[in-house]
Amino acid sequence: MRLFQFLTTTDYVSGSISRARKLRVTLVQFCNVLRNGTAMEAARTEEIHLRHVETDVLIPKIMREKAKERCAEKVEAFNHCCKESGFFMVFKCREQNAALKDCLTLQYNDTAFFEECKQEYIQEKLEFERTGIPSKNRKQKVPTSM
Fold it and tell me: Among 12, 121, 113, 101, which Cα is nearest to 59's?
């Protein structure tokens, strides 16, 4: 930290604030490289601060995907009813729609399920910070034959 203070002080005095910012970023990156990955990851998951968009948009998106998997039989029943009913699905599939809504609402209101999805999101975020590769690109299969 003293190195950072010294560098910013000398750069600020010389008038090069952008250079001080670059040095700060470089110093932060250097400190990240020196950290022990496994121990620091466990500590960072507990202390990580999530932005508003992460808690209100991105984590609920993961929750929706997982809730659809957990309520798969009710989703399938509703889809089957809608395909058979056609235009009159609004009237004929009320029972299946109510059952699906109940199942999904039960999943969304479960705090343990929210924490599970939150931890999954945090792990994906830490993995992205470590590798720089988004999760959707990491999950792609690498071709075996060239």
Answer: 121
Q: Is 89 strand, coil or helix?
A: helix
Give the count of beta carbons closer than 10 Å to the beta carbon of residue 117: 22
Is residue 31 within 8 Å of residue 44, measured between CB atoms? no
| Per-residue pLDDT tens digits for 68-99 | 999 999 999 999 999 999 889 889 999 999 99
Question: pLDDT tens digits for 14-41?
Answer: 444 555 444 454 445 545 544 545 444 4
Q: Which has the closest alpha carbon to 66: 19, 20, 106, 12?
A: 106
Q: Is the pTM of this model over 0.85?
A: no
